[in-house]
Amino acid sequence: MAEPAQSDVQRGIAALHAFLGPDVAQTWLTAITPRYNEAAAFTLPLPVDYTGLSRRLRVGFPSQFPAGQLALQVTPSPWLQWPHAMEDGMCLHGFGERPITGTPESIVSDSLKRLGQILEFAVEGSDPHRRAAEFQAEITSYWSHQLKKSSQSLLLLKRPTQAGPLYVLSDPRREVISGWETLWLSDDRNALRRHHERVVGVARSVREPLAPAFFIKLRDYPPLSVPMADAFFEWLTPYLDDEDIPAFLDWLERSDDLPVRWAVLELPGEQGGPLFCFNLRSKALQPRRGPRYGLRAGRRQGARETALFPTVLQVATLDLLERAAIHSRERPGMAADLEHRRVVLVGLGSLGSPVAMLLAKAGIGHLTLIDPDTLVGQNLGRHALGMDELGKSKVGALRMRLQRDLPTVQIEAYNTFVEVILTAKPEVLAKADLVIVTSAKWSSEVALWRAKANGAPWPLIQAWSEPNAFVGHALVAIEPGSDGRRLFNERGDFCQAFTQWPDGGVVPLPACGESFIPGGATGLASVVSMVVNGAIRVLRDQMPADAWVSSISTPNEVTRLNGHYQGPRLENGQVHVVLERDWPPCEERS
After folding, report:
1. CA-to-CA distance for 287 and 338, rounded, in angstroms?
2. I want to staple 60 with a disulfide (CB 3.0 to 4.6 A). Which of 71, 80, 103, 538 is the partner?
3. What pLDDT digit, counting tens, does each position of 132-150 carry?
4. Which residues are within 8 A (CB) of 391 and not within 5 positions of it... i.e. 6 or more apart?
5. Given CA atoms 564, 570, 574, 578 in this order, what sign does their dihedral have?
6. Beta-carbon contacts of residue 7 (< 8 Å; ≥ 6 apart)
7. How far is the C-alpha of 151 from the C-alpha of 304, rounded, in Å?
8. Is the entire prediction scored with pTM above 0.85?
9. Residue in 246, 186, 175 with CA at minimum distance from that of residue 237
C-alpha cells in the first residue's frame, strides 16, 4: 500500500533536517510551540558571534507554507549588529529584493544558505572590515528603517560640487493632498528659476528664496544607529571635512528659527556617492504639514521664535534630477553617446509621439518637434498625450510634458509643416544629427527626400505603419544624395507593402480630405520600438548607409480582419520579427 503524500509543511521540515544533517538535527534542533498561524516551529543554537553572544535561531513554518515565507528569527535580536538583520527577523533577500519562492525543499535550502552567508559576517573571528563594508553598502536602508517618513518629497535639480545651503521652492502646480507635496532644491537660484519656467511655463524671477536645506559631503560613514533629533548635529559633525564645518555651523545659526530643515548628505564615494536626506521638524507642526516656499519666501525668515524646537528627526524622499542619475539604468555608454545629439521629429501622431518620448528617455540631448496638428479625442487611444492636452497643439503639449518629466532634454517645437521649416528656417534641420518623419503625409515626406537628394547631410528615417499596425517599416538613408522617392507611387504608397486591405485600409472621415490609418496602441508599440532602436543605431554609427527595416507581428490576424498578408512568412513559434536588409528593388517612378 502506497504511503500517503507528505504535506508541504512536512516536506519543509524534512528538508530542514536534511540540510542540517542527522547529527545536528537530532542533537540541537528542538521543536517548540508554534505561534498563531504557524504549523510548526523549531529552535537551534547558533555559534558565538563577534560580540561574544550565543544566540538562537527560531525557524517557523507558516500554515500556508510555502506560499507564506519561512520565518527565521534570531534571539537576542542582532539588529544593527549583524548585516541584514532586521528588528523582527532576518532580511534574507536584501532590501527591496524579491522574496524566496519555489518548492518547500528549495525554499528551506535557499533560506538556510542565505542565513549562512549572513553568519559569515557575524560569527566570532569574522572579518570586521567585510562586516563594515556590508553595513556601509546599505547604510541608508538601515537609517530609513529607524525613522518615520516625511510628508514632503524633495527633487534636487543637480548635485552640488561643494558643501553649502540649498534654496527651496514648493512646486506651485500641485495642491497639497493630505500633507504630501513636492519641493525643488538647488544651490543655484538661476537653476530654480529655469526649472520653474520649464515645468510651469511662466518666467518668474527668484529674488529671495529661502535656504532651509544644506548639502554636505561625508568623509566617513556615521554610525548605523540614528540619534535623537536634538543630538543630530553632534552625531553628524565628526564625519564632515574640517573646511566644511564653519559653513555648516553658520547655516545652522541662520536657520535656527525655521520649523523645517533638511540635511542632504552625500555618502563617501569617488564618483559621487549615494544621497540621503534627514528632515528635522518642529514638534509644534502638524505631522503632515509644512510651510510652502515661494519665490520670495526669504522675506519671512526671522518671523518665528526659536522655541519651535526641539525637533523630530525623519527621513525625506530625495530624488536627483541629474542626467547621470536619470539615465543610470540605460545600457552602458548609450546615454553618454546620445547626450549631445540633436534629433528632428516630423509628425507627432500615434507613432511619432511615443518615439519622441522614448528617445528623450533614452538620453537624446536635444529634440526638435514639428507638427501642425492639435490633439483631438479620437487620438487618445493611441497617442502619448492624454485628456488634459485635448485641443492643444501636439508639439506644444508634448514639449511641456517632456520638459516636466525629463528636465535634462532641450526641446524646440514648431506648430507648422516641415515644408515651411525647410523654406523659412532651414537652419533648424541643418543642425540635426538625424531627421525622423512619421507624419504619413506624402507631401512632407517628399520634401525631406528632395532635400536629401540635393545633398542634405543629415541622416533620414521615414517610418510608418501599414493599416491595423501588424506591419511597420522604416527606410534609413545615411549618405547625402540618397533618394527614396522611387520606392513610392504618386500617392505615397510603398512598393513593397506586406498587407492589402479593402479601400487601401484607410478610413475616411466626414470632412474634406480627412482620413486616418487604423491601428491601436498595442500594434503600434512594436513599430515604435523598431523606429527608436533604428534611430539610436544611426546616432551611434551602427546602421548601414541605406537600410529597410520591417516589424511584423501576428500576421495570421490579418485574414481575420478581411485583409491579405503577402509579406515574409514567420517560422513556427514566431509571433513577431524585425527584419533589416537593403532597400527593395522597386521600379523607377517618375
Report:
1. 44
2. 71
3. 999 998 899 999 999 998 8
4. 374, 375, 376
5. negative
6. none
7. 21
8. no
9. 246
